[in-house]
């Protein structure tokens, strides 16, 4: 199954806090073609998670439009086309690992694919923990359950909000490789929010740098490295040059560069 295009067209969003409007997203336009991999970088609190929640129809925009496969995001989500891994793992604490990973099938009223569930638990390195409850797992393990859950229905759009933030470096590199492998095989249109410039450049076709709140696109950079990308790319001077360039865009947005 091919990815679906995801588009934000002149989208704005404000929250009202104690009667005052807090502008979080300001006229954002971003087109993610079918099967593309976009990484989003931006300072903390700039509106990245809000952008993702708009694509899930968990927030309503107050101007512009968000479309998934040309449709209202709520339709795409209800059809099971969208997989999501939130910043906090957001697991159900009373359910086991396998029952958390199975959840999207239940929400959609579909028969769970047992093999897919087992394969993904294995893939994220949690074999043997199928029957454990979230409270018995470390933060990194819980996050890996959330990653497995985001992939279990073979989504055509994959939205990931700092999914690897709680993992140590070695595990993070491993998960990066796995995500690249899954993306290359199934090509869901992927939007990855991350703090890691190197992670963004390693994984994405394109890195979008956002300004401090309200979020605007400060830079939109194509990542030219061929795939599959292996660990040797991390030692390539061209890789580091691009990371430095993107880091400079992030700093310039802070206004203190
Ligand atoms: N539901 C909400 N109600 C009020 N303010 C919110 C809500 N969600 C987010 N915000 C505020 O919007 C801003 C952007 O939040 P968020 O999108 O989570 O930022 P990021 O993910 O980039 O760190 C923050 O100032 C946050 O406090
Ligand atoms: Mg966030």
Summarize it.
This protein is α/β, with parallel strands linked by helices and 257 residues long.
Notable features of this structure?
single chain, 257 residues, alpha/beta, Rossmann fold, 36% helix, globular, binds adenosine-5'-diphosphate, binds magnesium ion
Overall CATH architecture of the largest domain? 3-Layer(aba) Sandwich
How would you describe the oligomerization state of the chains in this entry? single chain
Overall spatial form: globular
Domain tally: 2
Q: What's the helix and strand layout?
A:
Layout: E1 6-17, E2 20-32, E3 37-41, H1 48-55, E4 63-68, H2 73-78, E5 82-85, H3 97-108, H4 114-123, H5 139-151, E6 157-161, H6 169-186, E7 189-193, H7 197-203, E8 206-210, E9 217-222, H8 237-254
Parallel strand pairs: 3-7, 3-8, 5-6, 6-7
Antiparallel strand pairs: 1-2, 1-4, 8-9
Helix pairs in contact: 3-4, 3-5, 4-5, 7-8
The structure holds adenosine-5'-diphosphate (ADP) and magnesium ion.
In words, what does this structure look like?
The chain is an alpha/beta fold and 257 residues long. The chain has two domains: 6-81 and 156-254, P-loop containing nucleotide triphosphate hydrolases (Rossmann fold, 3-Layer(aba) Sandwich), CATH 3.40.50.300; 90-154, no CATH class. Helices cover 36% and strands 24% of the residues. The protein is built from eight helices and nine strands. It has a six-stranded mixed beta sheet with strand order 5-6-7-3-8-9, sandwiched between helices. Strands 2-1-4 form a three-stranded antiparallel beta sheet. Helix 4 (114-123) runs antiparallel to helix 5 and helix 7 crosses helix 8. The mean pLDDT is 93. Bound molecules: adenosine-5'-diphosphate and magnesium ion. The site of magnesium ion (MG) has 4 residues, from helix 1. Residues 15, 17, 22, 24, 42, 44-50, 213 line the site of adenosine-5'-diphosphate.
């Amino acid at each position: 199954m091919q990815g679906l295009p995801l588009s934000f067209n002149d989208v704005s969003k404000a929250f009202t806090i104690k009667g005052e409007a807090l502008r979080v997203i300001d006229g954002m336009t971003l087109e993610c073609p079918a099967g593309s991999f976009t990484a989003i970088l931006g300072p903390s609190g700039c509106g990245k998670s809000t952008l993702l929640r708009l694509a899930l129809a968990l927030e309503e925009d107050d101007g512009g439009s968000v479309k998934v496969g040309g449709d209202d995001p709520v339709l795409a989500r209800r059809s099971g086309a969208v997989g999501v891994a939130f910043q906090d793992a957001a697991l159900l604490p009373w359910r086991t690992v396998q029952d958390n990973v199975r959840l999207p099938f239940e929400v959609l009223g579909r028969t769970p694919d047992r093999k897919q569930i087992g394969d993904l638990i294995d893939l994220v390195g949690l074999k043997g923990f199928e029957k454990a409850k979230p409270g018995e797992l470390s933060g990194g393990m819980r996050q890996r359950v959330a990653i497995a859950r985001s992939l279990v229905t073979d989504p055509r759009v994959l939205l990931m909000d700092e999914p690897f933030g709680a993992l140590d470096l070695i595990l993070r590199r491993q998960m990066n490789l796995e995500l690249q492998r899954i993306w290359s095989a199934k090509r869901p249109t992927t939007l990855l929010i991350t703090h890691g410039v190197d992670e963004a450049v390693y994984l994405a076709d394109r890195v979008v740098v956002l300004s401090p709140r309200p979020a605007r696109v400060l830079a939109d950079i194509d990542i030219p490295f061929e795939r599959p990308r292996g660990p040797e790319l991390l030692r390539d001077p061209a890789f580091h040059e691009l990371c430095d360039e993107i880091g400079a865009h992030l700093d310039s947005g802070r206004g203190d560069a």
